Amino acid sequence: MNLALLFEEDFTRPDRVRLTGRRLAHLQSVIKVGVGDCIPVGRVNGRIGTGEILTLTDSEAELAVAFDQAPPPVLPLTLIIAMPRPKMFRRVLQTCATLGAKDIWLINSYKVEKSFWQTPWLSDDNLRENLTLGLEQARDTIMPEVRIRKLFKPFVEDELPALLSGKRALVAHPGTNTPCPTHLNQPAALCIGPEGGFTPYEVGKLEEAGCEAVHLGPRILRVETAVPVLISRLFDACR
Amino acid sequence: MNLALLFEEDFTRPDRVRLTGRRLAHLQSVIKVGVGDCIPVGRVNGRIGTGEILTLTDSEAELAVAFDQAPPPVLPLTLIIAMPRPKMFRRVLQTCATLGAKDIWLINSYKVEKSFWQTPWLSDDNLRENLTLGLEQARDTIMPEVRIRKLFKPFVEDELPALLSGKRALVAHPGTNTPCPTHLNQPAALCIGPEGGFTPYEVGKLEEAGCEAVHLGPRILRVETAVPVLISRLFDACR
């Protein structure tokens, strides 16, 4: 937690927040703050700044907060990911949030096992919690939107073409001859398949919708590795 | 397992191997092979090719193997990482192996907790197992070397300068003004700190040894995310 992300319900006055639960435990046992210490804070979907610990008990911390800086820039990226295996999903979600992706679509694919969609990590609360952890890591405040599409064909035929409008659209596909581009200077949409990849039919449908199939070299990457490798390749993280 | 990595002890003849344990279980329960099926194989530190399943029982599989291709290119990178938290360490190690890093140094740092060095994941067998998993993911065969240095100062003063010779040497340090370079056309050495970063003293010592401090932008990344982001930025993964 490189920043405590603050939600509306945390505010008791415009410049006061009360923290409990996970964030309180982290302040006490990891950061080991005391009264008078200052920590980085951010208002969800707003600015970042500083919080001074006013009171600290076993059940809550009260902080005086002030916000004076913009959060890091948003990635101009629409990320379309075949639903990952649940044990990998939380980390993928946190990594997407840490890297600044704000527009995330979880889609079905032939090699997505039906059971993946049953994971409790897809509940609204769990999505928000894991996105929050990823934002706090990056000192970001802008909450990503996650959309779930459990039917591949209607999504790709009816929604995807409009989503790709004005963007450089790519599908990561180890079987193709075109290397993934670098350093885009325009918004992008990126489709990442499941373990084992999209099927040829699915790649064909994504191409029909406007995606270009690109590869990342001879190495096959797990989704959780492919996401940072692709984002780092497409955009300049140092902005 | 996108490739079964074969060790000397697996060979019963120059063109025959016997698989048991994890690789057998994966063949049966994930890839679901039968007699006559072919799977990608690779000889450790050698070439990749194909293995045909000759016999398959609950306790072993026998394969006829032939090797006809070079493994993916090696990254010209020396990776020097402050020992990560054990729960993260296995994934970091697998990711390094998947991405093609072959020269990995695990070093101490002020913010590395002493207990991290006690993890059983540092045993020779566990290192080999996790590096193997990373190589099998990437269809690579070249086993990385991992060296452990539990004392920061002797390593940085006595060993590091020679290690950096002929390389572009970098230390990832969020506090600096120089952005991390891209697309190096020379060998590199890259130092990555622990959670919370190297201390100013440590960054100073790394700079004295020949490293340039560079940042990756306003976002603070976990080690497991920083490794793929940095490698993707420094080298062209599509070669």
TrEMBL record, chains A, B:
Record field: transmembrane: none
InterPro entries: Alpha/beta_knot_MTases (IPR029028), RsmE (IPR006700), RsmE_MTase_dom (IPR046886), tRNA_m1G_MTases_N (IPR029026)
A GO cellular component annotation in the UniProt record: cytoplasm
Main localization (coarse): cytoplasm
Record keywords, A-Z: Cytoplasm, Methyltransferase, rRNA processing, S-adenosyl-L-methionine, Transferase
Main EC class the enzyme belongs to: transferase
Gene Ontology MF terms in the entry: rRNA (uridine-N3-)-methyltransferase activity
Keyword field contains Chaperone: no
CDD domains documented for this protein: RsmE-like (cd18084)
Domain of life assignment: Bacteria
Subcellular compartments: Cytoplasm
Family per similarity comment: Belongs to the RNA methyltransferase RsmE family.
Name of the featured protein: Ribosomal RNA small subunit methyltransferase E
Organism: Marinobacter salinus
